[in-house]
Specification:
single chain, mainly alpha, about 55% helix, binds fe (ii) ion
């Protein structure tokens, strides 16, 4: 269940031009979304509800209706929380300016616009074009800043966008005070933005991005091994001793990572003292290559990204070098 905000925000700390009463009313709308979301989650909570399961159909039905409501209401709740957070200034604060990390992303990913013009030439026009939300976010898949619009809580948005700055441009957000003058609402909202909150979100996504895209596979492998040794944590990546006790995995399991991890590692096996050393075969080489590809998948990198510039796009050379290493190891 979604807990909602534990404490009501202090809407006194919004820009003085904006109506506190309008935000108080907006808060009530958010509370309604929380109640409806929790009711929807409750109705979906029983996986043995036969009536619900039997209604599953892409055309219509109760399950489809509830799942659709879940996505809509989850976005409604979370986007409002993000919006309230980034539209309330710190106590006694003057209007703020964007922080250094956010500004550096603007300069890197929008080189055709001055960072001082980013609001008026990028954000504000998109916010005026949207029917529900304007979201300045970090694309976790493209690793760049993006500005997107969302026409409703259930609208279409690029996948993988991590929200950094969220602007509510539904009519309910401004019409009580501004009528149809959305431009003035946005101008006033600009003076109310808490860029410290945005900067914190940038720092968070930078950390996640480092783990997801920038760490080299060897470091990721070492990190997992070290974590398993130190803390005995299960990362969903069992070592080769795990399966004999637990039984072999199904041949067509949902988690292909587990199946890959049970494939023999020719380098590990060939280095075991006293083991019967057999000649390295093409199959061994393929298994090693697949294992490296497997680690590249864990760290969310494509096969092309796996290699540095020197070996990128030169798979045959890489295989030759791997072959030489294997032969050296087996004598
Ligand atoms: Fe809203």
């Amino acid at each position: 269940m979604h807990q909602g905000m534990s404490e009501k925000y202090n809407f006194v700390n919004i820009a003085p031009e904006m109506s506190v009463e309008m935000f108080e009313s907006h808060w009530k709308l958010y509370e309604g979304y929380c109640l409806r979301l929790n009711d929807t989650l409750k109705q979906l909570s029983n996986p043995y509800d036969s009536n619900l399961m039997e209604s599953a159909s892409p055309a219509s039905g109760k399950l489809r209706e509830l799942e659709s409501d879940k996505a809509y209401l989850t976005n409604a709740v979370l986007l409002h929380e993000l919006f309230f957070e980034n539209v309330i200034l710190p106590d006694n604060s003057a209007p703020m300016i964007p922080g250094p990390q956010f500004t550096s992303m603007v300069q890197r990913d929008f080189p055709h616009v001055k960072s001082n013009d980013f609001w008026s030439n990028i954000i504000k026009p998109v916010a005026k074009a949207a029917r529900g939300w304007c979201i300045v976010g970090f694309s976790t898949l493209n690793a760049r800043l993006d500005v997107c619009m969302l026409d409703s809580h259930g609208g279409v948005m690029p996948i993988g966008l991590y929200p950094l700055l969220v602007l509510d441009v539904y009519e309910h957000a401004y019409a009580p005070q501004y009528g149809i003058d959305r431009g003035t609402y946005l101008d006033h909202m600009r003076r109310s933005l808490n860029w410290a909150v945005v900067e914190h979100r940038v720092a968070t996504i930078h950390s996640a991005s480092e783990l997801m895209r920038l760490s080299v596979p060897e470091e990721a492998e070492e990190y997992i091994k070290r974590s398993l040794d130190d803390d005995d944590k299960d990362f969903g990546f069992p070592d080769e001793d795990w399966f004999p006790d637990q039984g072999e995995p199904q041949s067509e399991g949902l988690d292909s990572r587990n199946e890959l991890s049970t494939q023999p590692n020719p380098r590990a096996h060939s280095s075991v003292q006293g083991a019967v050393i057999e000649a390295v075969t093409e199959a061994d080489l393929d298994a090693a290559f697949q294992r490296i590809k497997h680690f590249s998948a864990i760290s969310f990198r494509s096969e092309d990204d796996l290699f540095d510039e020197e070996v990128s796009g030169r798979g045959s050379r890489f295989r030759e070098e791997l072959w030489a290493l294997l032969q050296e190891e087996t004598g």
